[in-house]
Design goal:
593 residues; FAD/NAD(P)-binding domain; binds NADPH dihydro-nicotinamide-adenine-dinucleotide phosphate; single chain; 21 strands
Amino acid sequence: MNREDLQAKYRAERDKRIRPEGAEQYIKPTGKFAAMFADSYAEPEPRDPVADDVEVAIVGAGFSGLVTGARLKQAGVDSVRLIDRAGDVGGVWYWNRYPGAMCDTAAMVYLPLLEETGSMPSAKYVPGYEIFAHAQKIATTFSLYDNALLSTNITSITWEEEIQRWRFVTDRGDNFTAKFIALGTGPIAKPHLPGIPGLEAFEGEMFHTSRWNYGYTGGDRYGAPMTNLGDKKVGIIGTGATGIQCVPHLSRSSGELFVFQRTPSSIDVRNNHPIEPEWFKTLKSGWQYEWLMNFTTLQTGGFTDEDLVKDGWTDISKRIRDRVVALVTERGEYTPAIQQEAYEASDDEKMEEIRARVDAIVQDHETAEHLKPWYRQLCKRPCFHDEYLASYNNPTTHLIDTDGQGVERIDATGAWVNGVHYELDCLVLASGFEVGNEHARDSGFPIKGRNQLLTERWADGMETLHGLHVHGFPNMFVIGIAQAANLVSNIPHNFLEAGATIASVIRHAIDTGATVVEAEPDAQAEWVRRIETAGRSFFGNTECTPGYYNNEGKPMGRREHMNSAGYPDGAVAYFNLMTQWRESGTFEGLRFS
Ligand code: NDP
């Protein structure tokens, strides 16, 4: 297909999918749906309420909290408390136990603190349970279970100026204070449900992928077959990174499987392989930092002597980069148009490969046609899988394509698409999560700083210094990706850097006897200005098919831009800037008093 026809096809496919409600189409898991999201994996352990004072309290015990806790312990700060509503550490890897859960960012760079914990990943890409076990290992290595409050919901956090402490109140009767707080609530912590009329009416078994009911399906997260599904009609709604990982397992186990598709994902080769212990032993001390920076450099269009990770992420960016180099050499100058041309040519090539892969694997022609993605690869999260497409060769697995419209409605016994009723015993919702910092979305528990709630402070979008500090919220650190590196291909790398910065600031405060650390208003305003005036990233691209990368296709206002934009010079520049900032020891932009 020539470029013009292709663009017209992309536009037509996008237009079909634009919904006036944008991100509001999703249902929050409250009211009648709240019970679906209880922690079915752990019984809260009985304990007395705590009423003490700690040096640092960290909200969230996923990788952001764990890594920050580890960095603090390394810096000699021992009084650290993790708080999480989950019954264990691990964050998304605690909750997401669906069959086939894996990370398709390479484990050598995805799993934080491998050297510090003396760990070796089993394979290039590792399963969710191995990632969860690694989270637990970080907690034990750095004694982060001591003092932690798990199965605990925070109800409020308030800065008390007279004692220069943050006060925590929880649903377990706790009422304690902390000198410093770090917010590690994660970018995809809150599941949401598809806005399909009648969803609540379904009388069969229904659960979200982040609360898999193995009691109903049989099997387990380690891959045991879901034997209870052998005589069941199972439906799954959602074909994003989660849905495509579940489908091969459901396909093998279910009597019949109906996959309700609104938009097909791009499914590139994964090509997993075990990691050889002998090879791993040859790595020199400091290897993981080198791998992290190598991946990030290549993944964001930079140059390195070699590609250490060598995967689909680095492949995408190297193709673009090499084309830019060729065009600049040919034309003797660099212009932004060259960047765009290189990007489009690389993307056309890649998406043709992805569509050809569908034809090569899926035997039924019509099904193959429906599984082909018609958008630029980075419009949605690229997916990598070697079994998903072949699932459709299983005669009991049916693709129900909704031509971009989604499931029409649900009733007591099943789902309707194009006027056809599909009877179901079980409905799996792979419908994703609210994305971004929850306090920027007005959906967190109240955090009150000097005079204001954080949600009010950020009503017009996040405002920070370095993505970490907020004026008016002393001794508070945000651990996230927005207004910072914004490296979406390897989320824990963002946290490793944030953790190092937080630990060095707190260490400096302790060493100098400072009781309050706060962003200087001018420094914060300057950082905000840089983020504000940064060119809108690709992720705000309204040419793209809708998804959470582009605010579901709705133009981004200031609020959406500020809540999602990163440092304008990119992840590598941000990491380097923060390293220099920490090492300078002057902590410019912060006031210690
Ligand atoms: P997504 O938000 O990516 O996917 C939600 C899916 O639900 C989409 O396919 C969406 O369709 C579909 N959907 C929503 N509403 C309807 C409807 N009314 N009818 C039919 N379909 C509907 O969520 P995921 O849980 O898949 O992934 C979330 C994120 O989690 C990923 O992007 C990734 O960052 C992370 N993740 C990472 C993994 C890894 O390997 N590292 C693995 C799994 C998840 P449409 O596309 O049309 O909107």
